[in-house]
Amino acid sequence: MQRHLRRPLTLELRLPQPRLLVVDDDPSVRSVVRTAMIVEGYAVEEADDGLDAIAALSCAQFDIVILDLGLPRAGGEQVLATVRALPGHDTTQVLLLTGDHDARRLRTCLEAGAQDYLRKPFEHDELVGRVAACQRTKDKLDALRKSSLHDSLTGLLNRRGGEHELRRWGAHSLRHQEPLSVMMIDIDFFKKVNDEHGHPTGDEVLTEVGRRLKSCVRASDVVVRWGGEEFLLVLPNTSAARACELADRVRHAVSGAAIDVHRQRLDVTVSVGIACATGGVGDPEKHTDALVAQADADLYASRQLLRASEPVTPVDRSRSG
Length: 321
Fold this sequence. Notes:
Layout: E1 19-23, H1 27-39, E2 43-47, H2 50-59, E3 64-68, H3 76-85, E4 93-98, H4 103-111, E5 116-119, H5 124-149, H6 159-176, E6 179-187, H7 190-197, H8 199-216, E7 222-227, E8 230-236, H9 240-255, E9 259-261, E10 264-266, E11 270-278, H10 284-308
Parallel strand pairs: 1-2, 1-3, 3-4, 4-5
Antiparallel strand pairs: 6-8, 6-11, 7-8, 9-10
């Protein structure tokens, strides 16, 4: 009997293509860099002067910027300052190109935030090696930044990361005069979960509640573990009415099915507070701080109503056997 052997299925993991911007007024230099970096796997964009470079940086994020210092319309130093000032480019690596030997100028640029430099004319292998070193640095910084902005238990943004997103969407709301809603969510009687079932069970409950919250929201919405048993949702372009509809979905998503943890089934509920603002003027930080304070006050009122009624404690429906 003949046996037919199946080839093993190989899944190729496709990582996002790194992006590189080369800024030089010499088309031959841009061509050399573009050809070399495409071979290395980069998506390459070009700019032939400082103002075009600033425009490109304002529209997209780049892993690496290869930047000539002697540019028309806006010099390399001005472009470098733009890279370091623009949101989203805090880990972008800048590799300088220079044809002169002004050590003081190079030192000034390195102190201003450039990572390395190449003197013209440069060798292909030196270009590739220095770009690779810059990419390794960026990857390490991105990993550190991600860990500093995310909660290690749930994988959600932590408070620091959430505040960053709040500011970003607050500025967007003011700039485009769009509604921004904020929802504070608190797990009811969570202390009893920890006291009666232990902290490992409490951790599992937090993780599952976070997962259920993520399942309720759009890709543009932001879910944050705000602290302890509190979560925060940042809801761009969401009216108060739509936020209230989402709050009903959130309550149902959490309480609609028991959470299975360590051979136990726990019924868990949440209290919700909502705040919404439509556009306006002013400082984005004050704008979002006021929203969070209003949502927190609304959450406090919800919790007071819950505690004034018959307590709904987590029910242990342990499996037999």
